Amino acid sequence: MNKKQKELRQLLEKRGLKTGGNKAAMVDRLLGREITQKRKVTWKKSQGRALLKKLSLDKKSYVHSKTAEEVHKSHEWFEEFPLDKFKEYFTDMLASAAQHRAIVAEDNRLVNLEYTLIPRKSMTSRGYPFWRNDAASTLLREEIERERNDGKRGPLKPKDWRETKEEYRKFPPEVFRQHIYQERRRAKERPMKQAQRNKKGKKNHDEQVMKSHEDWEKIAGDGEVEKVFDALKKMTIREDDEDD
After folding, report:
1. H-type helices in the chain, by residue range?
2. Whole-model pTM?
3. 154 vs 131: CA distance, rounded Å
């Protein structure tokens, strides 16, 4: 490496720029002439796909009344892909969303039918209530939350804790003790799961998609309103002509 290259690298380092490449590349970088290759975006992992999916799953979205060409030019994320390919993505996404809604609707219908045909009993076969739907579940969860917030466990043992409320005494000691352990695990694991779900990259991505979803709907909605105004104007003009 000769002195010239060392000097170029030192200048690049001072400006916080990359120091790799040959002399010509380093000079171009210093002069701001370097052309960086744009990373190729794949549809599967793109923000455009995430936005289109969110729009298509929303039954009230204006996307269902637009053509593929109109949607393609409505956002820069869509324009990252050729129109002919986007048409395919658009058709497939709308079909997938319709299928998803149909499956959800059918699942809900079957669940509701199941409830009507086989109403759930209030008591288990062992003679005590189902925990999830009982008031004891909510009471214990609230107490565990307070325990967690205080940073220390309560002084009571499970068998003594059970005696503090009538709702708790409806459950056998062993069953109630297991629910205490279960609720404590849930309270302990929740912050860790929350941190995992809220990774910075995913959070930013979701926020961008949500904002673009809202912006897209607003722009599309404004367009629909303008069409109505135009139609009303034409009607008014025709009425004025008839009066003349």
Report:
1. 3-14, 23-30, 47-57, 68-72, 76-79, 83-117, 135-150, 158-162, 166-169, 173-197, 200-243
2. 0.44
3. 22
End-to-end CA distance of the chain: 89
84 burial type by CB count under 10 A (0-12 exposed, 13-18 middle, 19+ buried): exposed
Asked whether the beta carbons of 3 and 11 are under 8 A apart, the reply is no
Question: Could you give the CA distance from residue 68 to residue 43 in angstroms, rounded to a whole number?
Answer: 16
Helix axes 173-197, 135-150, angle to 10 degrees: 60
Amino acid identity of 215? Answer: D
Using CB atoms within 10 A of its CB, is residue 166 exposed (0-12), middle (13-18) or buried (19+)? exposed
Q: For 78-139, give the DSSP string.
A: HHTS-HHHHHHHHHHHHHHHHHHHHHHHHHHHHHHHHHHHSPPPSB-TTSSB-STTSHHHHH
**pLDDT tens digits, one per residue of 179-210:** 999 988 888 877 666 656 566 667 777 777 77
Go through 181-217 and write b for each residue having 16 or more CB atoms within 10 A of its CB, e for each that does not. eebeeeeeeeeeeeeeeeeeeeeeeeeebeebbeebb
Tell which wins on pLDDT, 128 or 5: 128
Query: Average pLDDT for residues 17-34, to the nearest whole number?
Result: 78
Phi, psi values for residue 123, rounded to 5°: -120, 145
**If DSSP codes are grouped into helix, strand and coil, which group holds residue 151?**
coil
